[in-house]
Amino acid sequence: MAAKQAVVVLGEIKFAQSALKKLESVASVTKHIPSTKEAFLETCASVKPIAIYRPLDTSQTVGRFDSSLLDSLPSSVKYVAHNGAGYDQVDVEHARTRGITVSNTPGVVNEATADTAMWLILGALRKFAAPARSCAAGKWREGLDVSADGMGRDPQGKVVGIVGMGGIGRVLARRAAAFDMRVQYHNRRQLPADQEAGTAYVDSLDKLLATSDVISLNLPLNKHTRHYISHDQLAKMKDGAVLINTARGPVVDEAALVQALESGKLAGAGLDVFEEEPKIHQGLLNSDKVIMLPHIGTVSQETQRALEELTLENIVVAIQTGKLKTPVPEHAH
Question: Is 231 an active-site residue?
Answer without folding.
Answer: no
